[in-house]
Amino acid sequence: MRDIIFDTDHHHGHELGPDGGSAALLARLETYYDAVPRFSATAEEHGPFTLFLRTGEGWHYYARPTLGSSGPFTADQVQQVRARQRAAGAPESFEWVHETTPGLRAAVEAAGLTVHAHPLLVLDLDDAAVPAPTSAPTPAPVSASASASTSTSTSTSTEDGGAEVLVLSPGDPLLPSAVALPHLAFAEPGTAVGTAGPEQLAAAARAAADDGSAARMEGRITAGRTVLAAVPGPDGLAISSGCHQPVEGVSEIVGIATLPALRRRGLARRLTLGLVEHARATGVRTVFLSASDEAVARIYQQVGFRRAATALIAEPPTTD
Questions:
Q1: Taking the CB of the first residue and of the last residue of the chain, which one, N or C, has fewer CB atoms within 10 A?
Q2: Which of 256, 290, 212, 282 is nearest to 32 (CA)?
Q3: Residue 248 lies in a domain
Q4: DSSP strands (E only) in 131-237
């Protein structure tokens, strides 16, 4: 789960959850959440929790309920995991789906953490009742691994003459700015037009090339773990970027961001549709994302996503 600007063995059947997500769907998402960190993190079992600790550089991970565990959960267990996170230099962070593990929130809050709720939205590409996006770019039918094997971008076309969406490969000159862009966007949260523009992005792109973050993304693309897409701007920089991360037919869309000075132009919407269509063309059947708030969730619902559940992220309270 990732804040985007802008289940388990005891679940069976297709009964609907409180937000319209079936038990089978929630089970697929739980399997996905358990699988993704294992590609670049070690997994430690602590009572009913699995703690993922990154290996090498890159983003930090979190603790979450162990796959198949329904608790019970206690504040003491949460504190034990937090102590291990502090010892490992990792953030004291927990992530889970409320509908799958409803009893966890009380224990986490009793342990002193602040819980943030985010709408979890799903687009099931096999569900005839879910309309396919109608204004999305049509991607070239290439797999993530195939696109990663070249040094050029995979270009997508747009039927309505809108902004072009490119699927980036290692070595693409757009890649450093595409990697740096979310950091600028998340520093100015919300959907209002912001201050960061091409000059700030160019500096952030140079930093991404120098600090290894662009190279780490290239490694993930080469391994087929991440598909990075971008809308190019006139200065040779990505003005909107985002990823999807496919694992066995399920993929999460993460890090959708637009250069703050260029918001309110439909770029994030178009990029999201491009990622969905790339996922569809490369065999993904279920696409999902966590929206930052209800207002952003409504934007995604307009292009076919439906509310399936609530993603919860717990962190220590901020201090002024």
A1: C
A2: 290
A3: yes
A4: 154-155, 166-167, 227-232
Task: Annotate 152-168 with three-state secondary structure.
Answer: CCEECECCCCCCCCEEC
Domain range enclosing 217: 144-284
Same domain, 276 and 162: yes
Rounded Cα–Cα distance for residues 209 and 171 (Å): 11
The beta strand positions in 189-249, using DSSP E, are: 227-232, 238-247
| 290: phi then psi, degrees, rounded to nearest 5 | -110, 120
Same domain as 152, residue 88: no
CA atoms within 13 A on the CB side of 133: 30
The closest of 162, 292, 306, 293 to 240, measured between CA atoms, is 162
The model's pLDDT over 118-175, given as tens digits with 9 standing for 90+, comes to 999 999 887 644 444 444 333 333 233 333 333 345 554 434 446 799 999 999 999 9
- Work out the burial of residue 259: count CB atoms within 10 Å of its CB; fewer than 13 is exposed, 13-18 middle, 19 or more buried: buried
Strands 227-232, 238-247: parallel, antiparallel or unpaired by DSSP?
A: antiparallel
Element (H, E) at 278: helix 267-281
Residue 240, judged by CB atoms within 10 A of its CB (0-12, 13-18, 19+), counts as buried
Tokens of 77: 């267990």
**pLDDT tens for residues 254-281?**
999 999 999 999 999 999 999 999 999 9
Do the beta carbons of residue 156 and residue 137 sit within 8 Å? yes
CA distance 94 to 148: 32
- Residue 152, domain member (yes or no): yes
Which residue shows structure tokens 């985002």?
A: 242
Mean pLDDT, residues 74-92 taken together: 98
Does a structural domain hold residue 292?
no
